[in-house]
Amino acid sequence: MSKISDRSAALAQIEGLIRDVPDFPKPGIIFKDITPLLGDAKGFALAIDLMAADLGHLKPEYIVGTESRGFIFGAALAYELGAGFIPVRKPGKLPAAVHSCEYDLEYGTDAVEVHRDALQHGARTLIVDDLLATGGTARATGELLRRLGADLLGYAFLIELAFLNGRQQMADAPVQSLIIIE
Ligand SMILES: O=P(O)(O)OC[C@H]1O[C@H](OP(=O)(O)OP(=O)(O)O)[C@H](O)[C@@H]1O
Ligand SMILES: Nc1ncnc2[nH]cnc12
Protein backbone atom coordinates (compact mmCIF):
# COMPACT_ATOMS: atom_id res chain seq x y z
CA MET A 1 0.00 0.00 0.00
CA SER A 2 1.39 3.41 -1.01
CA LYS A 3 2.34 5.93 1.69
CA ILE A 4 1.03 8.69 -0.63
CA SER A 5 -2.56 9.78 -0.04
CA ASP A 6 -2.84 12.39 -2.83
CA ARG A 7 -0.86 11.26 -5.87
CA SER A 8 -1.62 14.24 -8.10
CA ALA A 9 -0.59 16.72 -5.38
CA ALA A 10 2.60 14.74 -4.80
CA LEU A 11 3.38 14.74 -8.54
CA ALA A 12 2.76 18.50 -8.73
CA GLN A 13 5.12 19.02 -5.78
CA ILE A 14 7.82 16.92 -7.48
CA GLU A 15 7.36 18.70 -10.84
CA GLY A 16 7.69 22.04 -9.08
CA LEU A 17 11.12 20.99 -7.84
CA ILE A 18 12.47 20.19 -11.34
CA ARG A 19 14.05 23.26 -12.91
CA ASP A 20 14.35 23.99 -16.64
CA VAL A 21 17.79 25.32 -17.59
CA PRO A 22 17.79 26.52 -21.22
CA ASP A 23 20.78 25.96 -23.50
CA PHE A 24 22.60 23.48 -21.23
CA PRO A 25 24.88 21.74 -22.04
CA LYS A 26 24.41 22.90 -25.64
CA PRO A 27 22.27 25.60 -27.34
CA GLY A 28 18.70 24.39 -27.95
CA ILE A 29 18.64 21.82 -25.11
CA ILE A 30 16.29 22.52 -22.20
CA PHE A 31 18.02 20.72 -19.35
CA LYS A 32 15.79 19.21 -16.67
CA ASP A 33 17.71 19.97 -13.48
CA ILE A 34 16.78 17.61 -10.64
CA THR A 35 19.12 19.16 -8.06
CA PRO A 36 16.32 21.23 -6.42
CA LEU A 37 14.32 18.00 -6.00
CA LEU A 38 17.31 16.13 -4.54
CA GLY A 39 17.93 18.94 -2.07
CA ASP A 40 14.35 18.93 -0.82
CA ALA A 41 14.01 16.14 1.76
CA LYS A 42 10.23 15.81 1.41
CA GLY A 43 10.21 16.10 -2.37
CA PHE A 44 12.98 13.53 -2.83
CA ALA A 45 11.26 11.10 -0.46
CA LEU A 46 7.95 11.59 -2.29
CA ALA A 47 9.59 10.78 -5.63
CA ILE A 48 11.17 7.59 -4.27
CA ASP A 49 7.97 6.54 -2.48
CA LEU A 50 5.87 7.02 -5.64
CA MET A 51 8.33 5.14 -7.83
CA ALA A 52 8.55 2.34 -5.25
CA ALA A 53 4.75 2.12 -5.08
CA ASP A 54 4.53 1.87 -8.89
CA LEU A 55 7.33 -0.70 -9.24
CA GLY A 56 7.16 -2.88 -6.13
CA HIS A 57 4.81 -5.42 -7.73
CA LEU A 58 7.60 -6.36 -10.18
CA LYS A 59 9.59 -7.78 -7.24
CA PRO A 60 13.03 -7.08 -8.73
CA GLU A 61 16.05 -8.91 -7.34
CA TYR A 62 18.30 -6.20 -8.80
CA ILE A 63 17.98 -2.54 -9.71
CA VAL A 64 20.40 -1.37 -12.38
CA GLY A 65 21.24 2.34 -12.27
CA THR A 66 23.16 4.21 -14.96
CA GLU A 67 25.93 6.66 -14.02
CA SER A 68 25.50 9.15 -12.62
CA ARG A 69 21.98 10.35 -11.95
CA GLY A 70 20.65 6.81 -12.27
CA PHE A 71 22.73 5.93 -9.19
CA ILE A 72 20.75 8.37 -7.04
CA PHE A 73 17.29 7.05 -7.87
CA GLY A 74 18.38 3.46 -8.47
CA ALA A 75 20.17 3.07 -5.13
CA ALA A 76 17.30 4.62 -3.15
CA LEU A 77 14.79 2.38 -4.93
CA ALA A 78 16.93 -0.72 -4.41
CA TYR A 79 16.96 -0.01 -0.68
CA GLU A 80 13.22 0.67 -0.63
CA LEU A 81 12.35 -2.49 -2.61
CA GLY A 82 14.85 -4.78 -0.89
CA ALA A 83 16.81 -5.35 -4.10
CA GLY A 84 20.52 -5.36 -4.87
CA PHE A 85 21.99 -2.40 -6.77
CA ILE A 86 24.11 -2.82 -9.91
CA PRO A 87 25.98 0.22 -11.25
CA VAL A 88 26.24 0.65 -15.01
CA ARG A 89 29.17 3.02 -15.45
CA LYS A 90 30.83 5.22 -18.04
CA PRO A 91 33.93 3.63 -19.66
CA GLY A 92 37.00 2.76 -17.60
CA LYS A 93 35.44 3.09 -14.14
CA LEU A 94 34.63 -0.52 -13.23
CA PRO A 95 37.63 -2.51 -11.98
CA ALA A 96 36.82 -6.10 -13.09
CA ALA A 97 35.98 -7.60 -16.53
CA VAL A 98 33.12 -5.73 -18.27
CA HIS A 99 30.64 -5.83 -21.11
CA SER A 100 30.56 -2.50 -23.00
CA CYS A 101 27.98 -0.85 -25.29
CA GLU A 102 28.17 2.48 -27.20
CA TYR A 103 25.15 4.77 -27.68
CA ASP A 104 24.05 8.22 -28.92
CA LEU A 105 22.91 10.89 -26.46
CA GLU A 106 20.66 13.96 -27.02
CA TYR A 107 23.90 15.95 -26.82
CA GLY A 108 26.71 13.60 -27.89
CA THR A 109 27.89 9.99 -27.82
CA ASP A 110 29.05 7.81 -24.95
CA ALA A 111 29.37 4.20 -23.78
CA VAL A 112 28.25 2.22 -20.75
CA GLU A 113 29.80 -0.77 -19.03
CA VAL A 114 28.73 -3.41 -16.50
CA HIS A 115 30.69 -6.09 -14.67
CA ARG A 116 30.40 -9.44 -16.44
CA ASP A 117 29.68 -11.16 -13.12
CA ALA A 118 27.18 -8.56 -11.86
CA LEU A 119 24.21 -10.95 -11.67
CA GLN A 120 23.08 -14.54 -12.08
CA HIS A 121 21.54 -15.71 -15.36
CA GLY A 122 17.75 -15.18 -15.24
CA ALA A 123 17.82 -12.71 -12.31
CA ARG A 124 14.76 -10.40 -12.11
CA THR A 125 16.19 -7.00 -13.02
CA LEU A 126 14.81 -3.47 -13.39
CA ILE A 127 16.63 -0.57 -15.06
CA VAL A 128 16.21 2.82 -13.33
CA ASP A 129 17.33 6.29 -14.41
CA ASP A 130 16.31 9.85 -13.65
CA LEU A 131 15.38 10.77 -17.22
CA LEU A 132 14.44 9.23 -20.56
CA ALA A 133 15.34 11.47 -23.50
CA THR A 134 16.31 9.83 -26.81
CA GLY A 135 16.49 6.41 -25.15
CA GLY A 136 20.10 5.76 -26.17
CA THR A 137 21.35 5.27 -22.62
CA ALA A 138 18.50 2.98 -21.61
CA ARG A 139 18.71 0.95 -24.83
CA ALA A 140 22.45 0.42 -24.31
CA THR A 141 21.86 -0.54 -20.67
CA GLY A 142 19.19 -3.02 -21.79
CA GLU A 143 21.66 -4.48 -24.29
CA LEU A 144 24.21 -5.00 -21.49
CA LEU A 145 21.59 -6.84 -19.44
CA ARG A 146 20.71 -9.07 -22.38
CA ARG A 147 24.41 -10.01 -22.63
CA LEU A 148 24.35 -10.89 -18.91
CA GLY A 149 21.27 -13.09 -19.42
CA ALA A 150 19.11 -11.06 -17.01
CA ASP A 151 15.33 -11.33 -16.89
CA LEU A 152 14.61 -7.67 -17.81
CA LEU A 153 11.40 -6.63 -16.02
CA GLY A 154 11.28 -3.10 -17.39
CA TYR A 155 12.65 0.43 -17.47
CA ALA A 156 11.67 3.05 -14.90
CA PHE A 157 12.27 6.80 -15.04
CA LEU A 158 11.47 9.82 -12.91
CA ILE A 159 11.03 12.01 -16.01
CA GLU A 160 10.27 11.11 -19.64
CA LEU A 161 10.69 13.63 -22.44
CA ALA A 162 7.98 12.01 -24.56
CA PHE A 163 8.48 14.38 -27.53
CA LEU A 164 11.86 12.66 -28.16
CA ASN A 165 10.12 9.26 -28.58
CA GLY A 166 12.80 7.50 -26.53
CA ARG A 167 10.50 4.70 -25.43
CA GLN A 168 10.40 3.41 -29.01
CA GLN A 169 13.98 2.19 -28.42
CA MET A 170 12.81 -0.21 -25.69
CA ALA A 171 10.56 -2.78 -27.36
CA ASP A 172 11.96 -5.55 -25.15
CA ALA A 173 10.32 -4.57 -21.83
CA PRO A 174 7.69 -2.16 -20.38
CA VAL A 175 8.59 1.49 -19.75
CA GLN A 176 7.20 3.33 -16.72
CA SER A 177 7.76 7.05 -16.00
CA LEU A 178 6.54 9.10 -13.06
CA ILE A 179 6.42 12.44 -14.91
CA ILE A 180 5.77 12.46 -18.66
CA ILE A 181 6.52 15.73 -20.49
CA GLU A 182 4.71 15.85 -23.86
O1 LIG B 1 17.71 9.02 -23.18
P1 LIG B 1 19.07 9.58 -23.44
O2 LIG B 1 19.09 10.51 -24.63
O3 LIG B 1 20.12 8.54 -23.54
O4 LIG B 1 19.45 10.54 -22.22
C1 LIG B 1 19.19 10.21 -20.89
C2 LIG B 1 20.45 10.11 -20.10
O5 LIG B 1 21.11 11.39 -20.06
C3 LIG B 1 21.41 11.73 -18.72
O6 LIG B 1 22.65 11.25 -18.31
P2 LIG B 1 24.04 11.87 -18.79
O7 LIG B 1 24.63 10.98 -19.85
O8 LIG B 1 23.86 13.32 -19.13
O9 LIG B 1 24.97 11.67 -17.52
P3 LIG B 1 24.85 12.12 -15.99
O10 LIG B 1 23.77 11.27 -15.37
O11 LIG B 1 26.19 11.77 -15.45
O12 LIG B 1 24.53 13.59 -15.92
C4 LIG B 1 20.30 11.04 -17.92
O13 LIG B 1 20.67 10.88 -16.56
C5 LIG B 1 20.14 9.74 -18.65
O14 LIG B 1 21.06 8.75 -18.20
N1 LIG C 1 17.07 17.55 -21.58
C1 LIG C 1 17.73 16.84 -20.64
N2 LIG C 1 17.72 17.25 -19.35
C2 LIG C 1 18.38 16.54 -18.40
N3 LIG C 1 19.06 15.44 -18.66
C3 LIG C 1 19.10 14.99 -19.92
N4 LIG C 1 19.67 13.92 -20.48
C4 LIG C 1 19.41 13.93 -21.80
N5 LIG C 1 18.65 14.99 -22.12
C5 LIG C 1 18.45 15.67 -20.96
Automatic annotation (TrEMBL):
It catalyses: AMP + diphosphate = 5-phospho-alpha-D-ribose 1-diphosphate + adenine. GO terms for cellular component: cytoplasm. The keyword Transferase applies. InterPro entries: Ade_phspho_trans, PRTase-like, PRTase_dom, UPRTase/APRTase. Keywords: Cytoplasm, Glycosyltransferase, Purine salvage, Transferase. GO terms for molecular function: adenine binding; adenine phosphoribosyltransferase activity; AMP binding. One of its GO terms (biological process) is AMP salvage. It is an enzyme of class 2 (transferase). Catalyzes a salvage reaction resulting in the formation of AMP, that is energically less costly than de novo synthesis. PANTHER family: ADENINE PHOSPHORIBOSYLTRANSFERASE (PTHR32315:SF3). HAMAP family: Aden_phosphoribosyltr (MF_00004). Belongs to the purine/pyrimidine phosphoribosyltransferase family. This is Adenine phosphoribosyltransferase. It comes from Spiribacter salilacus. The lineage of its organism: Bacteria, Pseudomonadati, Pseudomonadota, Gammaproteobacteria, Chromatiales. The gene is apt.
